[in-house]
Amino acid sequence: MAFVRVAGAHDIPVGHGTLVESNGLLFAVFNAGGGRYYACGAICPHEDGPLADGWLEGDSVVCPWHGFDYDLETGTCRVDPDLSIPVYPVRVVGGAIDVDVP
Ligand code: FES
Description:
The chain is mainly beta. It has strands at residues 2-8, 17-22, 25-33, 36-41, 55-57, 60-62, 69-71, 87-88, 90-93, 96-101.
């Protein structure tokens, strides 16, 4: 795993996400406000919804298709505990967002 620069810290509005591609991997990066950012897989495992188009509620992302929400610390779905998404470490360096991708 290695940190990859994906966006400027001010490129993503608070409470929203953006779709990022790196080394063939698609993932979603979210700005939770207060300097907190999260990165996770881009596809909802329920029915393949676009998580980057979802929104944050606390430290969870809500899928825009059917409302399943996922804890962005653990990746666990709060609606169906059998579902989960990959989550990736994020750091902010010099005003840029880096994600530790596999
Ligand atoms: S596709 Fe995400 S909740 Fe159904």
